[in-house]
Amino acid sequence: MAYLELFSALRSGSLESQQPGHLLVISNAGPGGYAVFSITSFDHVREIFPEEGGVGLHADGYKIYMIHEPVSYPKKYEEPYLRADEEQIPLRLSELAIVEVDKQCRFLISAHPFFSSGSLDRIRERAATVALYFPEKVKGFNQLLDFLRKELHTTYNVPSRAVEQIIRLLESNFQEIQSPA
């Protein structure tokens, strides 16, 4: 089993909080192609509860963020923590590594994992959101990276060289989480 779709797994009772693994959420914010990716270590999820139109997660621990900005995105110089709710992540531009895809888009990736204590994440169940649970710590993260490789290449049409740059940045974040200084 490579991954479980979060909402289906919760409905069937096959997933509870504080299990090892990783949660990948991809939220597409509007028709322009802007998307926010977040990776949460699932064993740090303290509580999962149903909400209107989705679920809420109380979590402690590290998160990795990534933003896909199409070339036409008008607010690319606005700090990500100040953007509209569906476009927001809790980081500044100076805390992000940038991978430019020639005349197409750019990806902003956490330069370092973001530590969050007592955060509340709301994941809406809608067509524009992908929420996947990858079981197991290390193996699950590798499967998550394989999924992202395919997703970035096929859905976002990102060339292989840029995909590998993005994957290396995500791997670097994961290594920091595994062995914090």
Report on this model:
- The chain is α+β, with helices and mostly antiparallel strands.
- The protein has one domain (4-178).
- Helices cover 24% and strands 39% of the residues.
- The protein has helices at 6-12, 138-154, 160-178, and strands at residues 4-5, 21-28, 35-41, 45-51, 54-70, 96-101, 105-110, 114-124, 129-135.
- Strands 1, 2, 3, 4, 5, 6, 7, 8 and 9 form a nine-stranded antiparallel sheet that branches.
- Strand 4 and strand 5 (54-70) form a beta hairpin.
- Helix 2 (138-154) packs antiparallel against helix 3.
- The protein is globular and about 45 Å long.
- The termini are far apart.
- 30% of the residues are buried.
- The mean pLDDT is 85.
Secondary structure layout:
Elements: E1 4-5, H1 6-12, E2 21-28, E3 35-41, E4 45-51, E5 54-70, E6 96-101, E7 105-110, E8 114-124, E9 129-135, H2 138-154, H3 160-178
Antiparallel strand pairs: 1-9, 2-3, 2-9, 3-5, 4-5, 5-7, 5-8, 6-7
Helix pairs in contact: 2-3
Give the gist of this structure.
The chain has 181 residues and is of the alpha+beta class. The protein has one domain. Helix content is 24%, strand content 39%.
